[in-house]
Design brief:
Pfam families: EamA (PF00892). With 320 residues, the chain is an all-alpha fold. The protein contains 17 helices and no strands. α3 packs across α15, α4 packs antiparallel against α13 and α7 packs parallel to α11.
Length: 320
């Protein structure tokens, strides 16, 4: 009985603690390697989605990739002998996190992309680090929100605009409702990176598995009703893209996301959003044969400067 009580206390600690502080201690190259790996995992969403969506509708695509990720993660958890919590509080946290980190923003952005060009979408979606900074500095204050990090977020956004082209800025405002919807999705991403700290007491793989399982199941009924997947004829290319995206982007990506949150904090973890732009462009060039943007080099310099500013530990600045 004492052991059971202790385990229950640990399992619900994240629900009782409003917002844990990020882990203390010096960061090393492994932490930043994890951040880069996360950027690679989530960068693959751009070209893989383009390969899948022509023959697999959005709701079915998101549901299937989530269920594939869940099956993959639960198989690894079973092999590792890690038990998934069964209490309602844990699953409430998993469900809440999935709604604001994946289900809601993915559906909103997918709908918006029917009206907003891809370049405009990239620019608008790249505002997540700025929203994360504002929420952290004005509301939660769970970690130091230095002006250097805000400067880094703005530099990264500038680099994104340079890479995708200034036409993306000129075109903003033509589809104002859809563009506001994308901004709401990016705010949701920012909130998810803060809310995710409540899950720091759980194994990152457990959080990822529980989250994608909920996300896949909640979208399954509308996928069956609206898309009628049994009538679809997806290409082999689309099927492979969906499987790879489920394992790489959803499974490994979410797992790395929660590891980075616990080790690097909200603002630094959000820096990977800018790393995804040049990596995503590179993958699109290799996988889809797209042309290299003319301003890629300048944009990459701005992005790297922004990421560097956002990832400088607060302790290092204090030492100076």
């Amino acid at each position: 009985m004492p052991q059971s009580t202790s385990e229950a206390g640990r399992a619900t600690a994240s629900a009782a603690t409003p917002l844990p502080s990020i882990a203390n201690g010096a960061r090393n190259w492994r932490d930043y390697a994890l951040l880069l790996a996360l950027a690679f995992c989530w960068s693959s969403t751009y070209p893989l989605t383009k390969l899948a969506l022509p023959t697999i509708p959005p709701i079915t695509f998101i549901s299937v990739r989530s269920l594939i990720a869940a099956a993959f993660l639960f198989a690894i958890l079973w092999m590792r002998g890690i038990k998934v919590p069964t209490d309602a509080k844990a699953w409430k946290l998993f469900a809440s996190q999935q709604l604001i980190n994946s289900t809601f923003p993915f559906l909103v952005i997918t709908w918006s992309q029917q009206y907003v060009p891809a370049s405009n979408t990239v620019v608008l979606a790249s505002t997540t680090p700025i929203f994360a900074f504002l929420i952290t500095s004005l509301i939660t204050r769970h970690e130091p929100a230095m002006l250097l990090k805000l400067a880094g977020a703005i530099l990264g956004l500038a680099g994104t605009v340079v890479i995708v082209g200034l036409d993306a800025i000129r075109g903003l405002g033509s589809e104002i409702v859809a563009e506001i919807a994308i901004l709401l999705a990016t705010i949701s991403f920012a909130c998810a990176s803060i809310f995710g700290l409540r899950l720091s007491d759980y194994d990152p793989m457990v959080v990822a598995a529980g989250s994608v399982l909920f996300g896949g199941l909640v979208l399954l009924p509308p996928a069956l009703i609206i898309d009628q997947p049994w009538t679809l004829q997806p290409t082999l290319e689309a099927i492979v893209a969906t499987i790879v995206m489920g394992i790489v982007s959803s499974a490994f990506g979410l797992m790395l996301f929660y590891v980075c949150l616990s080790r690097l904090g909200t603002l630094t973890t959000n820096a990977q959003g800018y790393l995804r732009i040049p990596i995503g462009v590179g993958l699109s060039v290799v996988l889809l044969g797209e042309s290299v943007p003319s301003n890629l080099a300048l944009g990459l310099l701005l992005v790297m400067a922004g990421v560097a500013a956002m990832t400088v530990p607060a302790e290092r600045l204090k030492l100076r």
